[in-house]
Design goal:
9 helices; alpha/beta; single chain; five-stranded parallel beta sheet
């Protein structure tokens, strides 16, 4: 009787192959400027709220280059309308105020599909100098996934600059990558799960008992 052969085991990719694959994809992404079509001239200005100096710089750029402006999470509408329309002389339809964002990631995720529908392929990104590294990383992941090129226009912060840690920069970069792949904000998803777990662990309160005599 011929001996039966043992079942063949499926080969697993060692972690080194996954690392090489990830590195190759990363190099392909970083080299996209060599093979992707060149973006058109800037079509708009995207300014991230958080400092009125950013809005002032965006207003100057809009007047100089005659470009529309989108302000994500900026100052109150009264001040913004005064700055852009009365002080800088921009037309009301040249400025859009958007208050859906609550952090750097949502500055982009709340707007990127609107920009794609408007056929925006190139935007000037205005934010503070010490915020630009994180904003540009997040923006190039999120906006880049929609074919939108970003050119940085940092606003000098001088003595008020507070350089951000690499952990904060790359942490938001990871959140941006997860959003592109899944459509979910990793930070918000984790917070929701923690709140649900805390609610489930809290014992239900018993109702009032009968009054004592």
């Amino acid at each position: 009787m011929p001996r039966s052969r043992p079942p063949r085991r499926r080969r697993r990719w060692p972690w080194r192959r996954w690392l090489v694959l990830a590195g190759g994809l990363g190099l392909l992404w970083l080299s996209r400027g060599w093979w992707s079509p060149a973006p058109p001239p800037p079509q708009m200005i995207l300014v991230l709220g958080g400092d009125v100096d950013r809005e002032q710089r965006a207003a100057q750029l809009a007047a100089e280059r005659r470009l529309p402006v989108v302000v994500s999470g900026g100052s109150n509408p009264e001040y913004a309308h005064w700055l852009f329309e009365q002080r800088q002389g921009l037309a009301p339809d040249q400025v859009r105020l958007d208050y859906r964002a609550n952090d750097t990631l949502s500055n982009f995720t709340s707007l990127v599909d609107d920009l794609r529908r408007a056929r925006i392929r190139h935007a000037l990104l205005v934010t503070s100098q010490d915020h630009m590294d994180r904003a540009l990383l997040v923006g190039r992941i999120v906006a880049g996934s929609r074919g939108i090129h970003l050119t940085p226009e940092p606003v000098p912060c001088g003595e008020h600059c507070h350089p951000e840690s690499s952990g904060k920069i790359w942490g938001d970069g990871l959140r941006a990558a997860v959003w592109v792949l899944s459509g979910r904000d990793l930070k918000r998803w984790a917070a929701e799960r923690l709140s649900l777990a805390a609610a489930a662990a809290t014992p239900a309160r018993s109702g009032p008992g009968p009054a004592g005599r």
